[in-house]
Amino acid sequence: MKKECIAMLLAGGQGSRLYVLTSDVAKPAVPFGGKYRIIDFPLSNCTNSGIDTVGVLTQYKPLELNSYIGSGQPWDLDRLDGGVHILPPYMVEGDKGSWFKGTANAIYQNIGFVDMYDPEYVVILSGDHIYKMNYAKMVEAHKKAGAACTISVLEVPWAEASRFGIMAVDGEDNIVEFQEKPKEPKSNLASMGIYVFTWKKLREYLVSDEADPASSNDFGKNIIPNMLNAGEKMVAYRFDGYWKDVGTLESLWDANMDMLSRGDLDLLEDSWPIYARLPAEPPAFIGKSALVDHSVVTQGCEISGKVMNSVLSHGARVEEGAEVQYSVLMPGVTVKRGAVVRYAILGENCQVAAGASVGGSPESCDPDAWGITVLGPGTNIEPGEVVAPKTMLNRDHKEVHTK
Amino acid sequence: MKGLHGIIFSYEKHNSLRELTANRMPASVPFAGRYRIIDFVLSSMVNAGITDVGVVLHGNYQSLLDHLGSGKDWDLSRKHGGLRLLPPFSYEETGGVRAFRGKMEALAGVRSYLEGVRQSHVVLADSDLIVNIPLQEVYQAHLDSGADITAVCTSSVDGPDDVTYFRLDGEGRITETLYPLNDPTGCYRSLEMYILSKDLLLELVDECMSHDLCSFRGAVLQAKAGTLNIRSFVWDGYAAQIHTLKDYYVRSMELLDPTIRREIFHPQRPIHTKERNDASTYVDPNGTCCNCLVADGCTIEGTVENSILFRGVSVEKGAEIKNCILMQDTAVHRDAVLHQVVADKNVEIMASRTLMGHEGYPMVISKGSKV
User: Fold this and answer.
1) Do A287 and B291 touch (CB under 8 A)?
2) Distance from B253 to chain A by nearest Cα, in Å?
3) Do B295 and A34 touch (CB under 8 A)?
4) Residue B285 forms contact with A (CB below 8 Å)
5) Could you tell me which residues are beta bridge partners of residue B46?
6) Chain A interface, mutation test: which of B40, B259, B278, B281, most A Cβ atoms within 10 Å?
7) B287: chain A residues, CB-CB within 8 Å
8) Nearest residue to A156 via CA among A132, A196, A184, A192
9) Residue B263: which residues within 8 A CB-CB, separation 6 or more?
10) Cα(B111)–Cα(B267) distance, rounded to whole angstroms?
């Protein structure tokens, strides 16, 4: 049945800069903020924005992501007509199919899916951002401007502008130039990687881009510059809420800490709920000897130790005499008696044995040697073991170095 | 088809849960931070592989309907079977207006539903019981013993006053069913959970109907003790019958004991409930929280001790909560002091109010009140 607007969610990225956290799962399936996974944010935004048809493009280690999304019921995306669809790469006649070569190619390969709904507009989203956004407003602005493409942008400090894709605009926010990580930025409007296209236009550019053997089939590198060069109407849509790309370990940790401070990213504020699929677990128990300060706890947690400035996901346990500070404990983590965890991200089901020490504060060591300590899912730390700041261990207890 | 079919009775025997049942049946009274009482029996059934459950409704069941919905949160929204709500309009004569007179009358009211039951056996249960029991084991014991009826009971006689007791012979057969009983020493307390075959159930329903008998206890357990092989299944795991407000308060507070929580929240037999979307609970630097069961979506800026907080409760700075049960979305404003208080859903306690109950007689604040 015809839909005015559908969303395509790019969720195939490996998330190589999250290292051990994405050794078994795609980046959008990485846990966030106690109850969520990253993909809950774009999926919930879709539902809250009235978009009931979402194609999720998967490629890298999709098992956990696929089973997490399931029928789409937690996001109200199990629909008779539309709903959430997992779209993996596939073969076509004559052994011709291929992996998704780039973000644009992923959509190109699924032109058939989009055409099924014959939409006027397509919203392109990525699965690695934490934000609450009403896409309906952006589509409305796109319609009003009569644009071929609308790109949502965020004002960033000028000093940081050279880290982003920058959109130079005229007085009416029409995009006049796109600069990818420029040395001398012409504006401080950074692309958030969220696009609204008029489907008819996008379809043309996808087809011609595919025919160009030199193209890397990417939205930022190819489609957007091509449309600009051809003189299509492209408009910047200014977004002023909280938005964070959690593609690196530091930014993932930062975003968790941002959530704790309940400033721009207040998940307890319920006008724009974020939905999640959760196991059936009892309420959290905070014991007699527990101390919890500026932290979040989630159902299934059992806390008898000290927890400060930390995010505890469902099923996390902190035993008596243990201490967790400035850390993110993903689902099912156990910190045993007397163990200390500071400035760390602990992947799902990690076990920190009694008396061990993981990570340390920036003051505790040479500033150059300091960093967040990361344990991959399922890592076991031996009793009394010391894991230094900035160390990253995988489930086989081997050290992994950042590049 | 072999297997068990679940039937849950929802009715109120006495109005002793006070304000908590002013607008709802005991089955849908909130319990343990994120559940309703019926979730425990319903989840026990689902975890035992039961796919079809009928809930016999009586009284004010609006809140129960809201809670159960299509049954999907218990995996009971199915093409075949699943959850069936059996409202009282299928009773003969006066509809559901008159008082609940007994299980046999209620079953007679849903006789056509019983005929359609696909399973060979039926488990009957009340909805005032907090338990996490492996019902497949009870069913196996029923089949192995060759009993006509198997009744689940406990050797702990420490329960509410108005319960049924059994006297057993050496082989576990129930020789006497007693109610009321002043001195239950040596008896077993019935948990009001019975397994019998569908055929026998239909036979008993018809017989009771034609003799104008309403009570399962009187017309079946007592009258047929000699002719039917009625046997016991002794469950000495955790089981709490919630009849009075005192039961409710004491049994709630027991959940702060880790050994009891481990029995009720068994990892292999999860208790399912209606999902809500709440973020994790936030404890502010000004807040302290100890010895508490805390559901998601709470904001704690004050002091909370020995209490149970349901989803979405907020406790502002300077407030002091001790030995309380605060249900969904209760808001306690600055510097209010609450001891031994049970606050129903959406209660608002204004700044600096002081409310004190007593362990034996907790103060209850009705749903939606502003104090």
Assistant:
1) yes
2) 13
3) no
4) yes
5) none
6) B281
7) 292-293
8) A192
9) B132, B237, B238
10) 37
Contact A43, A101 (CB under 8 A): no
Angle at B5 between CA B4 and CA B7, to 5 degrees: 135
Return the closest-CA partner of residue A51 out of A110, A113, A122: A122
Closest CA to A294 of A314, A310, A306: A310
Looking at beta carbons, which residues of chain A come within 8 Å of B289?
286, 290, 292
Tokens 């939409």, residue? Answer: A119
Helix/strand/coil (H/E/C) assignment for every residue in chain B: CCCEEEEEECCCCCCCCHHHHCCCCHHHCEECCCEECHHHHHHHHHHCCCCEEEEECCCCCHHHHHHHCCCHHHCCCCCCCEEEEECHHHCCCCCCCCCCCCHHHHHHHCHHHHHCCCCCEEEEEECCEEECCCHHHHHHHHHHHCCCEEEEEECCCCCCCCCCEEEECCCCEEEEEECCCCCCCCCEEEEEEEEEEHHHHHHHHHHHHHCCCCCHHHHHHHCCCCCCCEEEEECCCCEEECCCHHHHHHHHHHHHCHHHHHHHCCCCCCCCCCCCCCCCEEECCCCEEECEEECCCCEECCEEECCEECCCCEECCCCEEECCEECCCCEECCCCEEECEEECCCCEECCCCEEECECCECEEECCCCEC
Q: How many CB atoms lie within 10 A of CB A375?
A: 30
Q: Which residues of chain A does B285 touch, with a Cβ-Cβ cutoff of 8 Å?
A: 293-294
* Cα A148 from Cα A150, distance rounded (Å): 7
Q: At what angle do helices B38-47 and B135-145 cross, to 10 degrees?
A: 60
Please, which residues bridge with residue B281 across strands? A297
ipTM summary value? 0.91
User: What whole-number distance in Å separates Cα of residue A340 and Cα of residue A387?
Assistant: 10
Cβ neighbours for B50, distance < 8 A, ≥ 6 positions apart: B3, B4, B5, B6, B123, B135
- Residue B304 and residue B321 in contact, taking contact as beta carbons nearer than 8 Å: yes
What pTM was computed for the model?
0.93
Q: Which of B283, B303, B306 to mutate against chain A (most A CBs within 10 Å)?
A: B283
Tens digits of pLDDT across chain B (371 residues) = 779 999 999 987 777 898 999 889 999 999 999 999 999 999 999 999 999 999 999 888 899 999 999 999 999 999 999 999 998 755 455 544 567 789 999 999 999 999 999 999 999 999 999 999 999 999 999 999 999 999 999 999 888 888 999 999 999 999 999 998 888 999 999 999 999 999 999 999 999 999 999 999 999 999 999 999 999 999 999 999 999 999 999 999 999 999 999 999 999 999 999 999 899 999 999 999 999 999 999 999 999 999 999 999 999 999 999 999 999 999 999 999 999 999 999 999 999 999 999 988 899 999 999 99
CA torsion, points A48, A52, A56, A62, in degrees to nearest 10?
Answer: 80
